[in-house]
Design a protein that fits this description.
Helix content: 40-55%
Radius of gyration: 21 Å
Largest sheet: 5 strands, mixed
Oligomer: single chain
Strand content: 5-15%
Number of domains: 3
Number of helices: 12
Amino acid sequence: MPANPFDKAARYVTKMAPLAFLAWAFGVPTSEITFGGWLDTRAVPLPHEPDQIGDTVARARNFGTEEAPWAIAIEFQIEPDPMMFGRLMIYLGHLWQSLKPDPERGSRFNIGAVVVNLTGTGRASREMRWPGTPLVTHLGVVERNLVTERAATLLAGIEAGHWSRALLPWLPLMTGGDDAGIIDRWKVLAESESDRRARGTYGGLALVFAAAAGRREIWEKALEGWNVIESPVVNEWIALGKANGLAEGKAVGKAEGLMQGRIEQSRVTLLTILEAKFDSVPAEVVMAARACTDLVKLQTWTTQAATATTLVEFRTTTGL
């Protein structure tokens, strides 16, 4: 099965300007990061996963320090996976065991992860402690939930020269990414890019992500006449969208059908977690889940179901 276009587009944006992406993800200036390229991790697959994340592991270093370099796994999710913590623990362990920054005996990378949720709010980090003992398990992940990021903040950072224009494709996924004034500011910044191919790429990728956010028609209208033909990936997105049954001759095709599928999958995931954790799920909770058509709400309920210790706690938190 072809990889989904959103995942491929997200990886492409990251590889287009990796230093700019890492600086934005960490919230630090680019001057604080030394990017050492992408690690070849084809021999370190994520167990039981058809889509490996081995082609987005960055070698980086905190500029000016003598500590070991970092191997940073970068993962994108169209919607948050409640099992991401466990998946990353397994994968990062494999990375630490299998990769070496140099041939020296005992040499090992520092390891870490960046998770970008294209929709919804995730919770990949965990800290587990046994009170009164030194026992602790902790995974601290840099996690960016684009639905909670403000589009105006990103634009202001780019306008001020703090962030790169290469971050523009993410904007349709952010809060305010469907506002006409925000889109006009986006166009001004994108049009100020001197590289014609890069301008086309920004437009093509923005359309891909707009579909993921249910904003395809708004962005298609705003970018009428925008030359995306110069983008080296536009034809690939179109072909990939058709292969997945998503295309209408566009990069991602009918976002409405995709959105309905994601809503139904979120319902199934929510109810599966509740049944696995609490055995019996009240009929009114099942009915509320099946009646809900708000994807963000369903994703929030799923996260709360995964973290609640009792059914009462879940129902109190969600109001179900």
